[in-house]
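Sample intake sheet
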Amino acid sequence: MSNLSLIDIGVLIVYGLLIVSIGIWAGRREKNTKDYFLAGRKMSWWPVMISIYATSLSALTFIGVPGAAFAGDFHYLQLGFGDLLGRILISFLLLRPYYKNNVTTVYQLLGKRFGPRTRDSGTTFFLVTRLLASGVRLAGCAIALSVIFNLPLNTAIIIIACVALIYTSIGGIKAVIWTDTVQFLLFIAAALVAVGTVIYALPGGWSEFFAIGNEYSKFNIFHISFSSGSTDFIFNLTNPKSFVAGFLFGSFTTFAALGTDQDLVQRMLTCRKVKDSQTALILSGLLNFPVTLLFLSVGAALFVFFKVNPDPVVQNYISIGKTDYIFPYFIKTFLAPGLKGLLIAGLLAAAMSSLDSAINALASTAYIDIYKNHINKNADEKNAVKISRIFVVFFALILIVIAIIFGRTSSILWLGFKIVGYTYGGMLGIFLLAVLTKNRGNDIVNIISMVTSVIIVIFLTADSVGILTGLRNIILYPLGIDSIAWPWAIVIGTIWTFTFSILFRRKKTGA
């Protein structure tokens, strides 16, 4: 704490006490799993809207998006257009079946529609994906704290996970939603302060920011060309920055993440009725544009600042590809007392708003889809909350281990996207089959289609597939490419899973 003033420490203490207090307040009436996991289905749409968005941001946004803008431009914003489409599709294709079937976890719908094996496969895909993706998110925040406080990375990971564990285990999903609401406001305030502070420090202010930013093409959003010789050619499958790749990746990823991932769907199921849930989801998509632009602006502002004020530490981060470390370094080195505490609190808010919900969703899925479905089918509500809290602790420990493993990655933002890209396609394909068809899909074949989708997307998009590289080159030769850019993975996985499974029939069993 040697780098912090008493004012900074005071800000962090107030933040910590506020979040834990909300957790205790929210958990004072948790009597059963409906309260603990769905807040009794009594939440209003506006805190749910904020919670949905806050969870989808995470520490990856706080340090990863500025890092990506520092190293490149604003092309990340392309995902927002596809993201909005994905939310609209979820609102009208998936939310109604979830409410109609009164599910606690979305994988119960798969069980009703196809059978127990598909439900278990969906549950497994979710658990693996969420553990890996949330482990990366935890590592992202820990990287920042380790830079700011000169802490060992593993120590920072443990501290963050333990804080989130305390209020999540006490208050359940209600604590998650209300703490997310408070943390989102802090999250945005921190970003605004960061941009304002950097611009104020520039001799030429806003004029210099725009002049240098334009000189280095930092504000470019759309990578689109109709010339086949351009890397931004609209049908170039090897360029992850192209508009089509970004748009499709944004729409498919959002469709899968917010539609089939219990972590993000869970808070939508806390609304009183489906219309409230739809309102919360679509408005959260509109909120995405100004917030993403704000964090991209942080990265661009830092780029300009360090062009005007060269720094050997920053130059070293650039040379080793660690641009995610630059924003935390700026917070640590250049901010005044009080502002430093606010930015650190904002960073913590970013981490907690995604970590808390992940832990709660993992626990709800483990209890409903594994414990109650396979281990103790006669489990009553008397000990349900207690058992659920045990699962909360269990998954928090696993996330710590995963974050430690992934903590050394050069670009934490894109790693998180790559992980979900490999598995979300299989999940989305099966859920689309469930809601778009009435009697297609086989309980056993669905497992095969989901597993093979992962194999296929890795084969087509991975940087290297070893001895199979020659085979991939032969398959892709007609397209004139050696591999497909990773943003296409989720698109390919969805199409494969849906197409493969729709060839088989099973009698309708519900839903």
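Comment: The chain has a mean pLDDT of 87. The domain at 6-411 is CATH 1.20.1730.10 (Sodium/glucose cotransporter).
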